[in-house]
Amino acid sequence: MWRALARVRTIGRAARRGGAWIARCGLWKAVTAERHPAGARRLSVPGQSRYPVTMPETTTDSLDEQQVKLLAEMCILTDENDNNIGAETKKNCHLNKNIEKGLLHRAFSVFLFNTENKLLLQQRSDAKITFPGYFTNTCCSHPLSNPTELDENDAIGVKRAAQRRLKAELGIPLEQVPPEEIKYLTRIHYKAQSDGIWGEHEIDYILFVRKNVTLNPDPNEIKSCCYVSKEEMKDILEKAASGEIKITPWFKIIAEAFLFKWWDNLSHLSQFVDHEKIHRM
Asked: Is the per-residue pLDDT at 128 higher than 90?
């Protein structure tokens, strides 16, 4: 279906020689991964002290080495009202066993449109730990627990994180997406399992960008990407509903509840800005 869109761009067609990946039957398959030391610890989440979170031992032997290294990043823990209550590793934030006990972190979803009002979508790399190979919005990631990205004034920390990840994933030069050109609309709170081990539980900041940019995607992050019109987006949602393709749960939620009314008003987005409400999805 993705190939049926004339503007498909497939990333990383050739396998890396001597690296962690080989091409087989058109799919990527992991052949090596970084080992992490075993061990478990307990985390008492502020404001949720009655529900201590046990950090279980989880092997990462079968996962992509580059993606495993990213699991050490420190995400921002929040309560259900998006108040910063601490920090924890990306790994621990995405384990279903911890999510079931209430662990919640801050995230963002970027929707980037070109000047023809077409939306840039990506297909997540098969190397990704959560929702590999799924189609989703332009960029989805997390601000980190550091002074630059913790700054909550006009969500500037989240915008800086978005700028960083647009560069890391899609190769968009930093100067093409300055934080002041990233518009923060609202937040959603959702939870979803990727598989029996990994999942998502996020307060997700919805960010819009409208401009032409230069793309140079990282094949370890993105399998393919393309710009789509509203009609093509509707076709993608229909194919996802019929099981022909898979889209990420946060993208499905946003697309079905909000996306098209925002898309119809790209020049008048201020009417949809709501920094008080967190939409519980």
From this structure: yes
